[in-house]
Write a structure and sequence with these properties.
Elements: H1 22-41, H2 49-53, H3 58-72, H4 79-86, H5 90-101, H6 105-122, H7 128-134
């Protein structure tokens, strides 16, 4: 209902939303906003007031890992790659992840890739094979490995 009018809102025509259902439209906008905020937060030369004085403890390592994972989960799939980007050892990264979540780095990477695959499969334009190709899931070792969970 419109505020104070007592009338119900009419749905917008499909053309106004790019021919997407409203929930898909909102999910897309939310996803785009999240990626924009992550890119801005990690832009060179921009530091938050807490980041400049924060220690290099495990919580900080895990937070930096999550930010890096959001930016690079499509192309980086190994814990060693993330540890190298963060300037720490795989062991340090693994301990930080276990302390924060109780899960290993590999599990967190796989969960993020699976979340993206589910999101893409929810779209009418993607089928399982194209999602697997987009997410680099068609490796020789274990095709569709993440979908087995």
């Amino acid at each position: 209902m419109l505020a104070g009018s007592g009338r119900h809102c009419r749905p917008l025509p499909a053309r106004a939303l790019g021919r997407r259902p409203l929930d898909v439209h909102h999910a897309l906008r939310r996803s785009l906003l999240e990626s924009l905020l992550l890119r801005l937060a990690n832009a060179p030369g921009i530091t938050s007031t807490g980041a400049a004085t924060a220690g290099t403890g495990r919580g900080d390592t895990y937070g930096r890992f999550v930010d890096t994972l959001e930016l690079h989960f499509r192309e980086l799939h190994r814990a060693a790659d993330y540890a190298e980007l963060l300037g720490c050892s795989v062991r340090t990264l693994s301990r930080a992840a276990r302390d924060a979540t109780g899960k290993g780095v590999r599990d967190l990477i796989d969960e993020r890739r699976l979340l993206e695959a589910r999101r893409l499969l929810g779209s009418a334009r993607w089928d399982a094979r194209s999602v697997a190709a987009h997410q680099n899931l068609l490796s020789k070792g274990a095709p569709f490995r993440l979908f087995a969970h």
